[in-house]
């Protein structure tokens, strides 16, 4: 039995189950940050999408659509065809543009199953623009819940449910893994409710000791227990007329669970040592990352808390949101770092057991590495490689990924091989490392010691300016002229010429 078997949840889920999903492309990363989060949404079946520099049009809700436009995107179309079984085939363009899926370079047409599209597939075009191919169960909609960032169906659905339940006085149970934003959702429910002018009182139930939990929640009269020299106001009294948020409700001490049930049912509670009940009109919002059905939890209390159940989606279930989340998290911290498209693709394809909270911590580490002049990798930042890469595509004859290059010892590579790999891969470090069969950190070390490859910070501004003019502003061509990594050159040029 699941929570929704016996509680009210949003009727929007019924609409989701009854209609065919829409095939969508969301811009996860683009050299123009304003483009991140724009979407193209196709029809419900039989879609054919021809994706190139000039089509289709991507847009934010209510704004004018624009093509991808970037010079790294081929004029020849990449073709996506959806069949009656919701399988999607992808045919590469007749051009040298590099196309990657979840970090792997493609050389042949591939097919995605409906389940793989539901998981979200990360496409990198021309090593510059990152897209997510995914389903949409709702049309794009503006974000009207501050703090809950996202452009995909799951995020839109959560915001719709918050608007719906905020207008009521129902108790709300927020369910989801750690880091999914349950406290942000609780604060949004309060802010959008008729109680917004009242207090919002939050408590972590795991931090309440068995002996003092009742006192903290319900208060105590003077002299109620040894050391109680004065009356103590409890959290229910503090939240009167507002909202009481009980985080980690699954860890509430067993002794106070029946007391909580009584307070929720009638609004009445009795402070420790008091001779009569008091009342609170506080609205209860609780949160848990546990399965409270399976836990040793008071089931009557659980049923009362489940007036409305809101499930917070996992980050790995909404990869299309990673780009806008990155932009928002960097903005919050005042971080101006320019993330490489290859790193963003890795971040979007990662499974994030710690969800948005973990992504935030990783971005802080990435910004530190970039400030020190390094080029961060997912392996450095997270400590483990993506599990998604090897399982990304369906194992059938037409699903052909570039054969993995055998791993090699960096010490066995000659300077000529390193130079050839960089030149043959548009001076892109990730692609050259894949071609050589070594890790990106290993390639960085080889580049530092290479006699013919230059570090951008050592190249004079005038030399870069002349090379940029000779290459008509094309970073890859400029990098080839200067024999320096393209992404690092792009960052240096932006620092030199910010406008």
Sheet-strand content, in percent, reads 5-15%
The class by helix and strand makeup works out as: alpha+beta
Question: How many distinct domains?
Answer: 3
- Care to count the β-strands? 17
Average predicted confidence as pLDDT: 85
CATH first level of the largest domain: Mainly Beta
Task: Please tell me about this protein's structure.
- This is Sigma 54-interacting transcriptional regulator.
- InterPro entries: AAA+_ATPase (IPR003593), AAA_lid_NorR (IPR058031), Homeodomain-like_sf (IPR009057), HTH_Fis (IPR002197), P-loop_NTPase (IPR027417), Sigma_54_int (IPR002078), Sigma_54_int_dom_ATP-bd_2 (IPR025943), Sigma_54_int_dom_CS (IPR025944).
- Helices cover about 35% and strands about 15% of the residues.
- It is an alpha+beta fold and about 500 residues long.
- The protein has three domains: about 5-140 and about 315-380, Tumour Suppressor Smad4, CATH 2.60.200.20; about 170-305, 3-Layer(aba) Sandwich (Rossmann fold); about 405-495, no CATH class.
- It has a six-stranded antiparallel β-sheet. A five-stranded parallel β-sheet has the order 12-13-16-11-17.
- Strand 4 (about 80) and strand 5 (about 90) form a beta hairpin.
- Helix 13 crosses helix 14.
- Mean pLDDT is about 85; it is low at about 1-15 and about 385-405.
């Amino acid at each position: 039995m699941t929570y929704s078997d016996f509680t009210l949840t949003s009727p929007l889920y019924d609409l989701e189950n009854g209609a065919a999903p829409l095939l969508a492309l969301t811009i996860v990363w683009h050299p123009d940050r304003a483009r991140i989060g724009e979407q193209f949404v196709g029809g419900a079946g039989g879609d054919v999408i021809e994706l190139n520099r000039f089509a289709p049009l991507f847009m934010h809700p209510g704004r004018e659509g624009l093509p991808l436009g970037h010079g790294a995107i081929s004029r020849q179309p990449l073709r996506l065809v959806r069949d009656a079984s919701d399988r999607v085939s992808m045919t590469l363009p007749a051009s040298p543009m590099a196309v990657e899926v979840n970090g792997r370079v493609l050389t042949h047409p591939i097919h995605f199953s409906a389940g793989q599209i539901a998981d979200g597939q990360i496409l990198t075009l021309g090593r510059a623009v990152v897209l997510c191919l995914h389903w949409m169960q709702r049309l794009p909609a503006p974000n009207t819940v501050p703090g809950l960032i996202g452009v995909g169906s799951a995020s839109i659905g959560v915001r719709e449910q918050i608007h719906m339940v905020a207008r009521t006085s129902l108790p709300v149970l927020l369910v989801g893994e750690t880091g999914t934003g349950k406290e942000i959702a609780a604060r949004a429910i309060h802010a959008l409710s008729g109680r917004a002018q009242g207090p919002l009182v939050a408590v972590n139930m795991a931090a309440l000791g068995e002996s003092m939990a009742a006192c903290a929640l319900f208060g105590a009269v003077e002299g109620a227990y040894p050391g109680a020299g004065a009356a103590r106001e409890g959290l229910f009294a503090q939240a009167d007329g507002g909202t009481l948020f009980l985080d980690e409700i699954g860890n509430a001490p067993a002794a106070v669970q029946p007391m909580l049930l009584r307070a929720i049912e009638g609004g009445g509670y009795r402070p420790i040592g008091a001779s009569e009940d008091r009342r609170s009109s506080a609205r209860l919002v609780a949160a848990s990352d546990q399965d409270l059905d399976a836990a040793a939890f008071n089931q009557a209390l659980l049923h009362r808390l489940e007036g409305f159940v809101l499930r917070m989606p996992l980050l790995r279930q909404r990869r299309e949101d990673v780009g806008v989340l990155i932009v928002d998290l960097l903005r919050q911290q005042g971080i101006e770092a320019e993330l490489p498209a290859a790193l963003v693709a890795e971040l979007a394809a990662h499974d994030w057991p710690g969800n948005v909270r973990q992504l935030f911590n990783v971005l802080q580490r990435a910004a530190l590495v970039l400030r020190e002049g390094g080029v961060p990798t997912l392996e450095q930042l997270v400590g483990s490689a993506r599990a998604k890469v090897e399982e990304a595509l369906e194992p059938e004859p037409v699903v052909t990924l570039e054969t993995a290059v055998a791993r090699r010892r960096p010490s066995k590579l000659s300077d000529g091989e390193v130079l050839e790999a960089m030149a043959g891969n548009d001076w892109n470090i990730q692609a050259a490392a894949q071609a050589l069969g070594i890790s990106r950190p290993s390639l960085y070390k080889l580049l530092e010691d290479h006699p013919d490859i230059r570090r951008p910070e050592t190249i004079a501004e005038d030399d870069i300016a002349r090379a940029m003019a000779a290459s008509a502003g094309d970073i890859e061509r400029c990098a080839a002229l200067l024999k320096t990594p393209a992404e690092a050159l792009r960052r240096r040029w932006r620092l030199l010429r910010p406008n």
